[in-house]
Amino acid sequence: MAIRQKIKFRTPISPDVISTHTQKVSARKPVIDKLNFKLTEDRHDPKTKVLPEILEQHPWHWDPMKTDHNDASCFIGNWAKNFDWEGLSKWCIRKANEHGLPEKYWDYDESTGDFWHGTDIATNTPIREQALLMLKNNTFNKHNTQYFKIANKEFEHWEQPLRDLFPQFGEEKMGVSLFVQPPGSMHWSHVDTYTSFIRRTGDAKADYSRLRRYMIFPRDWDFGHFFHYGNHCMNQWRTGDLWDLKPGIYHGSANSGPTPKITIHWSGELKEGYGELKEEYGKMES
Q1: From the CB of residue 279, how many other CB atoms can be counted at a distance below 10 Å?
Q2: Which residue in 110, 202, 214, 276 has its CB near the most CB atoms, within 10 A?
Q3: Are residues 246 and 121 in the same domain?
Q4: CATH number of the domain to which 177 belongs
Q5: What's the CA gap between 65 and 187, in Å, rounded?
């Protein structure tokens, strides 16, 4: 009897209420706009939009159905013990919550033909043709490409320890960026053109033969977190996993899960006397 008294039963909903609610729902008008362009019936080849010098200096197979590839060789090792990744992760999420407004997103202006990466106009940057393929007559927009970005001095007391992890980059031009990708956001697939590097350093043109980018996941993989690097889809990565994002390889990311996805990137020119990351990794660990 005591158990029965604790059970609370919901009041039955009247059939009239259900019927009225159904009518209201079925009468609702679409809340999204009709596409103002036709979806392609054929396949877009993104290779045609990549800078010729990148294709020449960093050849890649460009075959989405290729299975005998070595795209997964970009994985270098695990640095879980080399840094307080969880402390950094919590700090950056707090920063994102304090700010509230994602610093980066992609937006195309149909009236002028210009496109923006956050507040930076990117119309005449090296990524122009790749961006137009994705933003013009396509559904990538400022709403589904948002992410929070923390870079360089914005890291505050974390900056120098992060820079010290990769001595092979020249200190003057090295850039460190952290991206917090909220649920429902994605970054369209692309080949890196190091536009932020060019903007930060003031170089007239990037030397793609010397530029490199490394990436670390500061937290374990979670449901809905995606990162494809060429034909390899990264999955179930662990805190501290280190990847060499070699130039010339098509890649992109998305977050279809309920938890923010975080990545950290180091970009810069290799100093004289340093080789590729896989060659240097053993020395760095010793």
Answers
A1: 9
A2: 214
A3: no
A4: 2.60.120.10
A5: 22
**Residue 275 and residue 237 share a domain:** yes
Give per-residue pLDDT as tens, 96-125: 999 999 999 999 999 999 999 999 999 999
Query: In this structure, what token pair is assigned to residue 223?
Result: 């449901």
Q: Please identify which residue in the block is written with the tokens 């795209």.
A: 71
What's this model's pTM, rounded to 2 decimal places? 0.88
**Residue type at position 44:** H
Q: Say how many Å lie between the first and final Cα of the chain, rounded.
A: 70
Q: Which of 82, 115, 143 is the last residue of a domain?
A: 143
Residue in 265, 54, 239 with CA at minimum distance from that of residue 169? 265
Same domain, 178 and 130: no
Q: Could you report the per-residue pLDDT of 138-156, keeping only the tens digit for each?
A: 999 999 999 999 999 999 9
For 277, counting Cβ atoms within 10 Å of its Cβ (0-12 exposed, 13-18 middle, 19+ buried), the class is buried
Q: Give the chain's radius of gyration (CA, Å).
A: 23
Decide which of 116, 143, 170 is a domain's last residue.
Answer: 143
**Burial of 159 per CB tally in 10 Å (0-12, 13-18, 19+):** middle
CB 215 within 8 A of CB 155: no
Residue among 254, 94, 127 nearest 196 (CA): 127
Is the predicted pLDDT of residue 232 greater than 70, yes or no? yes
The dihedral region occupied by 202, where left means phi > 0, alpha psi between -120 and 50, and beta the remainder, is: left
More confident residue, 27 or 41: 41
Same domain, 189 and 166: yes
pLDDT at position 216 is 98
